[in-house]
Fold Glycine--tRNA ligase beta subunit.
Amino acid sequence: MKILLEIGMEEIPARFLKPALNDIEKYIKKEFESQRIKFETLKTFGTPRRLVLLVDGVSEKQEDLDIVNTGPAKEVAYDVNGELTRAGVGFAKSQGIDPTDLEILETPKGEYIAVRKFVEGKDTKELLSGLLKNLITGLTFPKSMKWSDLSMKFARPVQWFLAMADDELVEFEIEGIKSSLNSKGHRFFGEEFEVTSIEEYFTKLRENNVIVDIEERKQMIIDMIKEKCTKTGEQVLIEPDLLDEVTNLIEYPYPIVGTFNSEFLEVPQEVLIISMQVHQRYFPILDSQGKLLPKFVVIRNGITSSEHVRKGNEKVLSARLSDARFFYQEDQKKSLEEFVDKLSTVVFQKDLGTIAQKISRSKKLAEYMSEKLALRDSKEDIMRTIHLAKADLVSNMIGEKEFTKLQGFMGADYALKAGEKEVVSKGIEEHYYPRYQGDKLPQGIEGVIAGICDRMDTLVGCFGIGMIPSGSKDPFALRRAALAIVNIILNSKLVISLEELTSKMLDILEEDNVLKRPKKDVLKDLMEFFKQRAINVFADHGHRKDVIGAVLSIDCDVLLEASEKIETLEKVSKEEGFNDLVLLLKRVGNISKDHHEKAISTDLLVEDAEKELHKFYVDLDSKTELNLQTKSYEEFFRNILAGKNVINRFFDSVMVMDKDQSLKNNRLSLLKSLNEIFNRVAKLNLIEEK
């Protein structure tokens, strides 16, 4: 059996479409499972005007159900005479059966009274009305609305429901809107129509100029742009997120090429591109070298070109670009220092002060980092970068909220035009990188240090005043800031302690009198916060989760060293015998976990195998100190691996839990001391057995 549901409505915002379809899919899968209804395939489709569900291979009826309900134990349910007690009678009544229908059930815990029930599955069609009705009324959106005098809430006013099971109508009614076999085509290039089968529904949608499949619409846009919108030497800049948004704004795509005055090209092309993409949802046209041409593509929700649509969009874009040019020209009339001075009036956060205070704190942390990382030759440029990094926030271009995505880029452009060094200009732009997951990372040391200092001030400051992310609440994007710091440190190969860096930032914030929590608590919380982000970063780099957990559970302070430890442990763990060693190490850890004494008496070593293990321990202890000093992690792991046979012989030959308490405790102390060495670099007992 096939099931089709279409929810027809006024056009919903593009960002609502995919989440709504995902919710529909999740609901149906969950509901079918709970209702014992099997199906083969499930697909969702959507346009701004309709949400569509298609389920194929649906079973004609629910699965039958055999239920066994267990009651009290037999000795509780029956007295010594074999008569039902009040407990037994009460159970029978609660199950709605005669006491004679009770049976005795054998369980691992003993005998219990029980009742067996058979529930015959209902026809699926009997359940569909309520199921689909609940699906529709249960949908939620980021913003919902009411309309007319109805109590129903939805993203936009609902206009119709089409519901079918095979070729039959599924009847239900919500707020006076009855399900039917009628649907509507494209608002301007389609008509209302009736269907007699599910296959006919999809055919008539297409005939009425609705491409209901999102991926098909998206591909049509790409293909039609290539076919209709470019000449030799031209390319259309198709940004994936914008393509998704435009796809979800239309029911049938038709690309139209528009133009704008080439005089606007005196403004940096990034400004013009942002204006087209963000404000107008246009696709810019570039030449083969990536230089912007005075042309763009607008996707019309229609089936033909339109001169009226083209001219209207050109007019609107011209007004936008005029604003951009005006802002840009006005900004050129002021110096960067004038912008910097104005930052003392811009509040970053009420408890953390102004942007100017934030810059001052970032400079102090940069002084510390420059010293730690021996960046004396770059220090002047780093400090200048931080001084100017936020200047563009009060420029016309950014401050007017029209082009906020160009933060950093505008600052870099203005810095170059003001005669600043190229590395400073680049650093201003790069200190915002990465702006989102997967974005590029800063390459120049100026942007690297400025970016870390800026984020550390935000991160430590927010934790210091108690603004810690919880659940989905993270207004200052602190998770993203911590992820960025971890990625930048690893990518730039900075050998620096996260704990020392955080402690220094706490000292700086304390000098500014903004901390509201004890420094030790903030430090503890932040190191755990960094650890969780580091786990994600190393996992994204393709490392094994068990190896990451083993290493970072011991130390996550110097990320570059942690990375080396993870890579080395992964390499060694692939070698023959390592899995057997892990089993032995877990045994060592488990048997000694409750023992706390580590003093070992050589006089109490009586068995050859334990003497051999003690010698291995002494040698390993001295080698480990040298390995850790020289950061020879592979040699450290190989030294442990070399003791596999020694450890094995010990467990085969020696009774650890000897009746003689002194022998027992001495052996446990030996194992305890060994286990501590094993865990100096990584908790090897966390490695999964292969």
The mean pLDDT is 93. Residues 431 and 450 are 6 Å apart (CA to CA).
